[in-house]
Input
Amino acid sequence: MSDSQTPRSGAALEGNVTEEARALRAEAQLHMSTSDDGNLVGRSGRGKKAAVYIALIAFALMYIYPFIVQLSTSFKTDADAVNNPLTLIPNPVTTAAFERIFQTDYPLWFTNSVIVTLLVTAGRVFFNSLAGYALARLKFAGRDAVFTAILAVLAVPGIVLLIPKFLVLNYLGIYNTYPALFVPLLVDAAGVFIMKQFFESIPPSMEEAARLDGAGTFRTFWSVILPMARPALITLTILSFQGSWNELSHFIIATDDPKLYTLTRGVAGLTSGGLGSGSQFPITMAAALLMTIPTALVFIAFQRYFTQGGNAGADKG
Amino acid sequence: MSTTDTAVAPGTSRATRRRRGGGKGSGQRQSVAGWLFVTPVLAVLGLFLVIPIFMALWVSFTNWTGRGSPFSSSVSFVGRENYAALLTQEGLSRQDFMISLRNTFYYVIGVVPLQTMLAISLAVIVNQKFLKGRGFFRTSFYFPSVVSSVAISLVFLYLFTGTGAVNQFLGIFGIDGPTWFSDPRGLIHMIGGGIGLWSTDAPPSFLLDTQVMNLSLWEWLSGPSVAMSAIMLQVVWTTAGTFMLMFIAALQDLPTEVEEAAMVDGANPWQRFRNVTVPHLRPTILLVVTLGVIGTWQVFDQMYVMTQGGPAKTTLTPAYLSYTAAFKQQQWGQGAAMAFLLFILIFVLTSAQRFFLRDKDEAKQKKAEKKQRRAAKKAVKA
Output
């Protein structure tokens, strides 16, 4: 359901439906004894429209307002933020909060987040599609068992893995190292599932042709199948980006070295008075704003893939 | 394959032979490639997911303090002791664990229905065909779902301070808002006090004096604290967007003719929603509620960022308690035991839920079929 299509098909549907409805209503009125029913539909139609718009605008305000507050407060002075929390225009406008943030470890956290996110995303896209392809298309002994195992992994609630993951990182001697931040995140069962579903939808004739030409399995996968999987790859890239950029609990248990803090870990510390920010709301708002901007940019650019990802998740249940 | 073989004259080219060879060996080649392709995924999942679970299971039966290897000889096996301390022995550990279960129970039964209803409402509204700018509204409702929970927590901490935006807004209507994140009062306590059921300063003694699992009945009946309610509002607000997408996808499968027909039959909008839309959405509702229960029992990020379990332990959850027991108090055995109990709890709840809801659905279907058959018989007789 691409965005360019929805409105059009919606309009087309509406056209058909209103015509049909008019016909049905006319017929219905012939049979019904109470003649004012027809009027009622018309009146309630207009009333309904107004009600829907009012509800919609109320909800939209509820959803957009917090982000506007975040934006405007980050340009306020501390006193202004405390005294006028409802006012959306900073008075005076100041960039002091941002200047203070850049004197702290924030740039380091940001860099760590970028590196970890890039590695995790690259790893997930590559390894998940390899496995997804094998599970969808290659015949090998034990394939069903592997798939069942991956489904079982999907069912494990992530939060109960905090202590177990720490145990293994500690045991391997990589606690408080960079690999501890990203290696455990390099693959994810849900991603394998999404890719498997997608590869199953590609006609097998394509790879048969490539195979008959003597191309090896990996080459067939890499140069024939993968280019056809572009939409699924973009979806996976976005889900991986979002997942690793927003990840918190894994980074809490993988390190306690401030040099290895990512944005989520570092910024979470701000609330408990890190940087002496007890009531310095402009700082916390600016910190939250800066870490939201990359997400917002990716979201706006690839909006429709986000929606597809959400639905892919719906299917797996 | 055989047709190509006969069509090609013998000894025409090497390529043919190679191709033929490839055809024969491709089963084996696929087998090797298949395993090679899944190896990275299996290795990482095995090393950082399956093996750790067994390590933690072992740790949950020991008194490991986080020093050295949990498998060294200085660590002793304590049997069920860690589990007993949480479930059967009187003591602070059990009390804290019970408090965390109580808090999360209220959290789950508050958040799951609210987020499901909000998601359905948003989906139904956004799905109205006549609406202009549907894409914009859908985007703004979904956006919080993709933003970091840390960033959103910071914003809500600011909005919900004692003199913050929310309380100033309430002030316009003459409502004196609470101090939200530092208010430990339980909602049911407050409501009961408000309607004169009891006095919150001097609760009924039979509630205060009856102890169940180290907590008095009065404490069990607290309801979510004001602080917890603020977190619940935040989570409902954040997650409704994701579930809204699922409902929109389901709504788009609902044939418009059905609704039109109901309209013609004189059903008002509420009846149409209740008798046409909701039954159609049933499978999606089941999915959303299941995902909701799984997700809400795991709540951790908000506690870590915003309240650290406070005020007065009213936002303590099993996930956060397990984390502090292990990482802060070095009681790794007990922390791991809590994680496993939570795991079992989630598993049992979701299985039970699936079972009961599915059963009901089938029963309804059978009933409907019976009715139809009876109606058909009557029609035949007539």
In short: The longest helix of chain B spans residues 332-381. Chain B touches chain A through 111 residues (CB under 8 Å). Residues 83-186+223-353 of chain B form a domain with the MetI-like fold fold (CATH 1.10.3720.10).
